[in-house]
Design a protein that fits this description.
heterotrimer, A alpha+beta, B alpha+beta, C alpha+beta, B: Aldehyde Oxidoreductase, domain 3, Aldehyde Oxidoreductase, domain 4, five-stranded mixed sheet, 19 helices, 28 strands, C: alpha+beta, Uridine Diphospho-n-acetylenolpyruvylglucosamine Reductase, domain 3, Enolase-like, domain 1, 2 domains, five-stranded antiparallel sheet, four-stranded antiparallel sheet, iron (chain A), oxidoreductase (chain A), metal ion binding (chain A), metal-binding (chain A)
């Protein structure tokens, strides 16, 4: 076992891990932060996406020891300081961008990363950026709509409702 | 103006807040003190004789607590099947045993043989590799028709063959149908495959067994759509635990789509092992493992024939379907190709004679059971495809051919045993043509052509039977369970309500929409109503959520219980206001005496119920809590029309969905936002089936599409925005809310629209020999079809 | 995963030393290796992560104009930093996998693995790149030796890949719908001394150069120049997603499209 130290959602944390301990395992089992989900084992589904040093990564495809000294941000750290939903989270609720909620943490983290790079993405850019996040419930319609809305775009003309 | 609260309002989902902040509580998020971890040793061959399992080395590995094998389950029941089909000769189906761990034989890749329980998951998995399995490999049977040939290897040695049943429906119509075909003006024949799918809820299955040695109570935490069903099946048929000593909890569940209805071996194992070991035992499925253990869906091979007269009126339909059961009968498997499929073969059309033959077959593959739509997508696909083909053969516009044959008078008794209560198929079709802008298709076609692309338009209708199900009817059809639903409404002293429902939400938003209904009935704020589900310890016996039944059946139970609450509350209010209960009206959360200005608030009445200082104790008991069970007297029949426009790249065969529109009649709507979302998701699954998804086995019975590297799930860039409409509403006539159910429509209605559109595109481009392409319509398949 | 020791050196020398022990394996971004380890299809005694070595990261321009990419540079960095110098290469890097994968996956990891459906091998072979390791330079033409097989020796680390910049180039990828790897991908690059065409995803032999197309395009760099050519389906991959004949057909279609895209 090796000690690993990192910052998660602004708080310094450390723990003893094996070489094979994944970042997702460290978060879920080591820190009890179960918002990050595991939906596959081939790095396809994106339910485990977190930010490491500002980059969106799949935490199930990265070892905890690779995050030594890193700044990690997870879904638990996405709400506003007062506990209210952030703009992206609120848009997901407002536009029904989630159903079972299992892919949602990864979707929100990916959307946040996209909007940091591209504050007003087009529909096509959003769909392209979500390539590594699978949702089985929503058909993506309301996820794309929510991300457009979160970026301040008028989604009133988009079909339905 | 859209409503802003209550029934008909797009209330935002309250459950979203926890899901969006990482505070959902899914089964894998639960860890119990002292928990051990299970790793299953599974068959790597499709068919084999199990000559021995040596666990000695594994048991000596670090952290190993115990290794279980089939021998530990001798004398313990197998996984039961919940439906018994009677075949066309009056014989009951062949029903093989389904052991928790393999006994004597393994029958599919993934069949569990042994389980290592250890202190950590990695230790369990390390030791699982040290379990020595002696298997004599046998020739597998994979193809359904080959499985029925004389001399085919038998999946189950104790059965007479691999035929589960040969079902005829309606058997008495068989000769009349055959005769109609002999004299028909035109017969259109289509052979097709409705391919095997893997449901792939994003949350893999998890089971945690727990046992309290003090009380001898067992608890199972599991990813289930119906915890009471699991408690009954596992308690009564597998482990012999009475229901009062067994609690099943299905907390937040990350999608189901049918795959989490069934009782699985891992649930029974963890509950059993926890009792044996006196400590919690947890199993978490990996995605790779889920591909070979979760029940698959569909897998039908069908020949359908449609007889028409010279004007295009449907005269008769005859089908022959081979339905794959896989290696064992999963919980509801036998019902899917029969009662959920044969009864829908009339579709939206007046066809006087229908005969459906289904041969259910055992093969060395993962068991097949209900997957979103379950039988109804298979019925809709073959019917709507053969109608399109017939239209082309007879030179009739496919929309007109459908209209010509629509059922227009309701109620309508079909020749396949169901009675549609309401519907207006012309209305949904008209609405579809409008929202899909079908009149603009020609200009879009020209624009596609200018870019070197083929374009096609596919339109189809669908009907489904939901609100599953009238117990008196399904009992006659072979169900071994009733299919009612339950609700307990508990009013607290301060006026808030808790509704405990037997329905289960795993994405459907019941916590919000159910609260809207109750709040609307009483006239109080939705936030005063809490919906509790998923725990047998605090909800009444319920049958769970599948078959688009929650609101139609569970919601009806909740309405009935709330009606009882209101009736009792009126008596209390009458007492408080010294009036007759008959004169009491409830509106906007206040009780008034008709014709007077006397009024008491909802909260005053609820307080009186629990603080009965001034209370009619001689007439009614204190307290305000009521339970209702609701058993529908018919199915509900949502229906609609779908349109898809595709582009096809003529050089590569790649199909892109350019436009998709759905006009559905779901009867009354409680939360339009949620209904839209249900349709969106169903459409994406239907597009997935049409273009992307397919479980394929190789000749040895190995699953080729065993991970997301080869099983193509629809992604955001595979689908467009959808145009959906549910303004055509013919309310259900026999449930109190007039609702029909919306969960499966998208998955039922969309595959034929996509395939019709691709065939249309190819036909328009001169590939007149292409009348059908089997799903999934991969670029490779479409390209091959274009090569002739 | 089987248990293994984990090291994360910060210099190349430390990494080389760490890899000198029995059953040690280098770990790039891990986007392919970690899923492989999860399936227990590999069981190294030690993993040596290369992601902490600053000298292996980054994009720079050599004196001869070649674009030089550090072996541990993630795809997303290549997509951003090579865009001004070698747009076709940057575009290829920016379309590998998905955004999260691109933030971790590295060029060295991709080339060392040499998946027959990966994108980078097409760029390296199509550009006639030089693969530099801690001990030598290997020309792309000598580097790729068939599916999952390369010229790399045990413990040898890709430190840099040098791409000569062509006059025109483009990569066209036809995605396998599940994995999003290339069902077939074609990289076309026009240099002063001729055209190179590298094909990934199609052949049982891994990435290869389509020499007939190279010859035709070297004399006439237009999609029409390959119209008369045919690709033999023999040795093409046949699987769930496409037959050998289909892949052979795609090679030609995508080559034409790449030429057109290159302008």
């Amino acid at each position: 076992m090796t000690k690993v130290t990192m910052t998660v959602n602004g708080k310094p944390v450390s723990g003893e891990v094996e070489g094979r301990t994944l970042l997702s395992q460290f978060l879920r089992e080591g820190l009890g932060m179960t918002g990050t989900h595991i939906g596959c084992d081939t790095s396809q589904c994106g339910a485990c996406v977190v930010h490491v040093n500002g980059q969106d990564v799949k935490s199930c495809t990265m070892f905890a020891l690779e995050c030594e000294g890193a700044e990690v941000r997870t879904i638990e750290g996405m709400a506003n300081a007062d506990g209210s939903l952030s703009t992206i989270q609120q848009a997901f609720q407002d536009h029904h961008g989630l159903q079972c909620g299992f892919c949602t943490p990864g979707m929100v983290m990916t959307a946040a990363a996209l909007l940091e790079k591209n504050p007003k993405p087009s529909e096509a850019e959003i769909r392209d950026y979500l390539e590594g996040n699978i949702c089985r419930c929503t058909g993506y319609h309301n996820i794309v709509k929510a991300i457009m809305a979160a970026s301040g775009q008028d989604v009133g003309a988009i079909a339905a409702e | 103006m859209p409503k802003d609260h209550g029934i008909g309002a797009s209330s935002k989902r309250r459950e979203d807040v926890r899901f969006l902040t990482g505070r959902g509580r899914y089964t894998d998020d639960i860890n119990l003190r002292g928990q051990a971890y299970a790793c299953f040793v599974r068959s790597q061959v499709a068919h084999g004789r199990l000559n021995g399992v040596n666990t000695a080395d594994a048991e000596a590995m670090p952290g190993v607590i115990r290794v279980f094998t089939g021998a530990d389950f001798e004398g313990i029941g197998g996984l039961p099947c919940g439906w018994q089909v009677t075949d066309r000769h009056g014989e009951v189906m062949q029903e093989p045993g389904h052991p928790v761990l393999a006994q004597g034989k393994v029958r599919h890749v993934g069949d569990p043989i042994a389980v290592v329980v250890a202190e950590t998951y990695d230790q369990a998995r390390d030791a699982a590799e040290a379990v020595v399995i002696d298997i004599e490999e046998l020739e597998p049977v994979l193809d359904m028709k080959a499985a029925l040939e004389d001399g085919a290897p038998k999946v189950h040695d104790d059965l007479t063959s691999n035929l589960c049943y040969d079902w005829g429906f309606v058997e008495e119509n068989r000769e009349a149908v055959n005769k109609a075909f002999e004299t028909a003006h035109h017969v259109t024949t289509l052979e097709l495959v409705n391919q095997r799918l893997v449901p792939n809820a994003m949350e893999p299955r998890v089971a945690i067994g727990d046992f309290d040695p003090g009380t001898e109570d067992s608890t199972l935490y599991t990813t289930s759509q119906n915890p009471h069903v699991i408690r009954l099946l596992m308690g009564a048929f597998v482990l012999g635990i009475p229901e009062h000593k067994l609690r099943v909890v299905a907390p937040d569940v990350g999608g189901g789509f049918g795959s989490k209805i069934f009782h699985y071996a891992e649930e029974a194992f963890c509950t059993f092992a926890a009792k044996q070991l006196k400590r919690p035992v947890k199993w978490t499925c990996s995605r790779s493992e889920s591909f070979i253990t979760d029940a698959h869906g569909r897998d039908h091979v069908t020949k359908i024939e449609l007889a028409l007269d010279a004007e295009g009126h449907f005269q008769a339909i005859r089908t022959e379907t081979y339905a794959n059961m896989g290696a064992y009968l999963s919980t509801f498997a036998p019902s899917v190709p029969t009662w959920l499929h044969g009864t829908l073969m009339a579709g939206n059309y007046k066809t006087p004679l229908i005969y459906v033959n289904v041969k259910a077959v055992f093969t060395n593959t993962v068991p097949v059971d209900a997957y979103r739509g379950a039988g109804r997508p298979e019925a809709t696909f073959q019917l709507e495809r053969v109608i399109d083909k017939a239209a082309r053969e007879m030179g009739i516009d496919p929309v007109e051919l459908r209209r010509k044959n629509f059922i227009t008078q309701f109620p309508y008794a079909t020749p396949v045993a169901v009675e549609y209560d309401t519907g207006d198929y012309n209305a949904t079709l008209d609405k579809l043509l409008e929202i899909a802008d079908v009149s603009g298709f020609e200009s879009r076609l020209a624009e596609s052509k200018a870019r070197g692309k083929l374009r096609g338009l596919g339109i189809n209708c669908y009907i489904e039977a939901c609100g599953i199900a009238p117990s008196h009817l399904v009992g006659q059809l072979g169900a071994r369970a009733g299919l009612y639903e339950s609700a307990t409404v508990r009013v607290n002293a301060t006026g808030g309500l808790v509704v405990m429902t037997g329905s289960h939400s795993h994405g459907q938003g019941h916590e919000t929409s159910f609260a809207q209904v109750v709040a609307d009935m009483i006239g109080i704020d939705e936030n005063m109503v809490e919906i509790v589900h998923g725990d047998t310890a605090n909800t009444p016996m319920g049958m769970g959520t599948y078959g688009s039944r929650s609101l139609a059946v569970g919601g009806s139970a909740m309405v009935r219980a709330t009606e009882k609450i209101i009736a009792k509350a009126k008596k209390i209010a009458a007492h408080l206001m010294e009036a007759s209960p008959d004169d009491i009206e409830l509106k906007d959360g206040a009780f008034t005496v008709a014709g007077t200005d006397k009024s008491v608030a909802w909260g005053d009445v609820t307080l009186a119920a629990y603080v009965p200082h001034n209370y009619p104790l001689e007439e009614i008991e204190p307290g305000l809590e009521e339970t209702a069970f609701y058993d529908p007297n018919n199915f509900t029949y949502p229906a609609g029309a779908y349109a898809c426009e595709v582009e096809v790249d003529p050089e590569t065969g790649k199909v892109t969905i350019e436009r998709f529109a759905a006009a559905d009649d779901f009867g009354n709507i409680v939360n339009p936002m949620i209904v839209d979302g249900q349709v969106h998701g169903g459409i994406a699954q239907g597009i997935g089936q049409a273009l992307l998804e397919g479980a394929a086995y190789d000749e040895y019975g190995q699953l080729l599409s065993g991970s997301y590297m080869d099983y193509a799930m629809p992604r955001a860039d595979d689908v467009p925005f959808y145009t959906v409409d549910h303004s055509c509403q013919t309310p259900c006539t026999h449930n109190p809310l007039g609702v029909k159910g919306c969960g499966e429509a998208g998955a039922i209605g969309s595959p034929p629209a996509v395939v019709n559109a691709v065939v249309d595109a190819l036909q328009r481009a001169g590939h007149t020999g292409v009348t059908h392409i089997d799903m999934p319509l991969t670029p490779s398949r479409v390209w091959s079809a274009m090569q002739g | 995963m089987y248990a293994f020791d984990f090291e994360r050196p910060t210099t190349l020398d430390e990494a080389v030393a760490a890899l000198g022990t029995e059953e040690a394996q280098a770990l790039g971004g891990g986007q392919t290796l970690i899923p492989t380890l999860k399936q227990r299809l590999a069981g190294p005694a030690k993993l040596v992560s290369l992601t902490g070595i600053a000298e292996l990261r980054g994009v720079c321009i050599a004196d001869d104009g070649a674009v030089c990419i550090g072996g541990a540079t993630p795809h997303a960095v290549v997509a951003a930093e090579a865009a001004a110098h070698y747009p076709a290469l940057a575009a290829l890097a920016g379309n590998i996998g998905d955004p999260a994968v691109r933030n971790r996956g590295t060029i060295g990891g991709s080339l060392a693995n040499n998946d027959p459906s990966a994108c980078y091998p097409a760029a390296a072979l199509g550009s006639g790149a030089m693969i530099r390791t801690n001990i030598r330079d290997i020309a792309a033409d000598d580097y790729f030796q068939g599916m999952f097989t390369t010229a790399l020796e045990e413990g040898e680390i890709i430190t840099e890949v040098r791409f000569p910049v062509p006059q025109k180039a483009a990569y066209v990828k036809f995605e396998q719908p599940a994995s999003r790897f290339a069902l077939t991908g074609v990289f076309v690059a026009k240099y002063a001394d001729g055209v190179r065409v590298a094909v990934t995803g199609a052949s049982e032999e891994g990435v290869f150069r389509w020499s007939e197309a190279e010859a035709a395009l070297s004399s006439d760099f237009s999609a029409g120049a390959i119209a008369g050519l045919a690709v033999d389906a023999e040795n093409m991959i046949g699987d769930l997603h496409g037959s050998p004949e289909y892949r052979a057909h795609l090679v030609k279609v995508l080559t034409g499209r790449a030429v057109t895209a290159a302008g």
